[in-house]
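Explain this one:

_____
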Amino acid sequence: MKTLYLHIGTMKTGTTSIQQFLYRNRKVLEKKGYLFPIFDYQYTKKWTRSKKRNAMFMSAPLFTKKRERDHEAEHARFYEGMAVVAEAFRKYDNVILTDEVIWTNAHNFRPELWQELKQYADEHDFTVKIIVYFRRQDVYLDSYWNHTVKRLYSRDSFQEFLVNKLDHATPDYAEGLKKILEYFPKESLVVHRFERSSFPEGNVIYDFLEILGLKPDEGFSFSEKNANERLSANMVQAKLALNMVDGINPDEMVHFEKACLMVSNASDELYHADQITTEEKRSLVDSYQEGNAWIAEEFFHDGKPLFRDDYPENEVFRKDNPYETDDIVRFASSSDILLYRKIKELEQEHLKAKKELEAKLREARKAQEKAEQELQKLKKLVEKETKKEQEIFGKFPFRLFVPKNKK
């Protein structure tokens, strides 16, 4: 049976690392019968154009020129993308699609997605395996908020985020799963905890490969780099302040994001602070306890709660913390260092381009000199032949006689 593996998130559960791995190893996967298709669709935001998030066509909202939702275009794109998937099954037994925002978009923008996908799969005779990772809600929401400040220009504090954007983040995992189960059987869902202790060798990519029925030692290329780092407590506040400034374009904002990330590791080691208290974390998670217990019973069967009950006792962030000034200095210095590196990079590019241009000019001069030499040879040859003709005609003089007309 042909199988579509659809990885839907959730956000901040190793999705970027998984996507980069799949994209980097797509040729290896193809040899094993797994296609990771690439779509060249364009979306509104610069960061949503990644070819690694190849399932965006399923749930990304599209808009008209008047900035109104274009539902007709969304449905057309969905079926256009699914047609590519159906065609791929003519050659491959397995197709892999991934986009972490499907989890939230199916709740906020595309509630009809699961019905459409099930109907299409039945009509084209393939099965769907929906893969989702969950982390404890307090950690998930903190990471989600951190990412929106880092990458999406959010101006909400964490407390404001919990009031204004909580439902958008879809932390009620049970509710989201039950909506999928309205159309897909439970066997279609692959639900995993996002905890290193539950992964083979503590590696989420190894875990994902295991879901696909593959082993990590089968010719794959791995990266040790953290694919999507979070901002430290002080740096997320710095970025939040920058987000308040009007007129900063996306490229400039990326520069400041990089500067914040340069500081974050050292900053976090010195001052690791949470946005809410331990009691507030417990209260937040407890509000989803019933749904979490249902997920543990339905999908794990290991007699354990869905998430561990350990809450590290970290300091709650305060703006006048003793490391704030040092981090601001580090941030400003990092921003200057990035600019310096960019200037040096541009200088190197300029020098390289200058050398290439000079080399081409030298080649052009050589070609010109060679052409002039050939022209001189040709002129001498013409002069020589002309002289020979003159000598020949000089030895044999003749007159041109024109007969007179007879009357």
About this structure: The two ends are 107 Å apart (CA to CA). The beta strands are 2-7, 34-35, 94-98, 126-134, 189-193, 273-274, 315-316.
